[in-house]
Amino acid sequence: MEHSQAVTRAGVFVPVLRQRNSAAEVAEGVKRSDEDRLIEAEGLAAAIDLDIVARAVITVSKAQPATLFGSGKVEEMKALVEEQKIGLVIVDHPLTPVQQRNLEKELNTKVLDRTGLILEIFGRRARTKEGRLQVELAHLNYQRGRLVRSWTHLERQRGGAGFLGGPGETQIESDRRQLQDKIKKLEKELEQVRRTRTLHRAKRKKAPHPVIALVGYTNAGKSTLFNKITGADVLAKDLLFATLDPTLRRIALSHGTEVIFSDTVGFISDLPTHLVAAFRATLEEVMEAEIVLHVRDMSDPDARAQAADVEKILADLEIDTGDAEHVVEIWNKIDRLDETGRAHLEASAASQPGGRTVHMVSALTGEGLEPLLADIERRIAGRADQVELDIPSDSMQLLPWLYENSIVREREDLEDGGVHLVLDVTQQARTDLQRMGARYPNVRMD
């Protein structure tokens, strides 16, 4: 007789180090509230279906090298763990291997830090081969230098069938040399993925289909906006990291301009270094994008701090967030605001420095999407060159290439069997067309 496995009872604890603020908070002069940090940590735990039976913000006046928390706080946590029969303690802060091991010993239960928790979420969310490779590489880099057995509670919970658990993990932990060999193997596989992506991007550059990348803090509504614009069916839930693998869709805008929208992984504060490095191939889609749409949840009290975190990651990718033509802010979820909140937001949008354009939208209802798409088309069309071609009847085999690699605005079929075209072409397409001039000497381009 089969028995359903009990959901792991978890406690979520957010240490607040009074002497520490994130780099983004210091740079932007913003600070995330302790309560909002706790809510986010609970959201991360909920993303892997844990039963949260205890939660607390714990002030840490001085980080202890052995356990992070002071001895008194550790005793309080231990009493709570025993009282609530907690099987997993989540500490929303990076822990050293020593701190993790000592806390597990003191609390007599499994301990997972913020990095480990995010890795577990990513492991569950990854769907493509690339995504799984990236998560596994990040996981192994995280495990390197750690002797503790991470995720064994989740392995029991899932019967060893989970991506990050199962056979082989003990061997990896006991044999560092084998772990390093596996890391090298994964890095080679990911390098092949990067080369493939580079080839795909090179092909896209030859066609006038610019990439529009959606970025934003996790749960900002990127996937909902992506679905609304493209008619796709990407998973869009009120859940942190609901989607992980990038999704691309090509659509035609109102005046015929074809673009590719790319939905990317959501960002988060203090994103683990292992993940930033592992997901660089995915984030290259953002780096190569013609336009980056920074989607913000303006109904969230922490919207400003979240924006600072996103901008820091974009800056790490060498994307100039101050370039108003390249990075466009999308203020989402305005349907959640009351009249006063909306009026305040409209005034703020209208008074952006340097006349920067901000689009207020509701990805849920579709409000504000029409002017957003019109603005995107204006920006893209402004970067394309318009040319006129006279194609004689003996060069008609060029037509399919032109339709595939340009936007045909006007076509006139001439009496002599030739065609007159008005086209929008990228610089790359124009260069390719000029190279083909020897094959089509009778084609005239103005």
Question: If you had to describe this structure to a student in words, what would you say it looks like?
Answer:
Strand 9, helix 14 (339-350) and strand 10 (358-360) form a beta-alpha-beta unit. This protein is elongated. It has 17 helices and 14 strands. Helix content is 43%, strand content 19%. By secondary structure, it is of the alpha/beta class. Helix 5 (114-125) packs antiparallel against helix 6. It starts with 8 loop residues before the first strand and ends with a strand. 36% of the residues are buried. The strands form three sheets. It has a six-stranded mixed beta sheet, sandwiched between helices.
Keywords:
17 helices, alpha/beta, single chain, 43% helix, 446 residues
Note the topology.
Layout: E1 9-17, H1 23-28, H2 34-46, E2 51-60, H3 71-84, E3 88-91, H4 97-107, E4 110-113, H5 114-125, H6 129-143, H7 152-157, H8 169-174, H9 176-206, E5 211-216, H10 222-230, E6 247-252, E7 258-263, H11 273-278, H12 280-287, E8 291-297, H13 303-316, E9 327-332, H14 339-350, E10 358-360, H15 369-381, E11 385-391, H16 399-405, E12 407-413, E13 419-425, H17 427-435, E14 444-445
Parallel strand pairs: 1-2, 1-3, 3-4, 5-7, 5-8, 8-9, 9-10
Antiparallel strand pairs: 6-7, 11-13, 11-14, 12-13
Helix pairs in contact: 5-6, 6-9
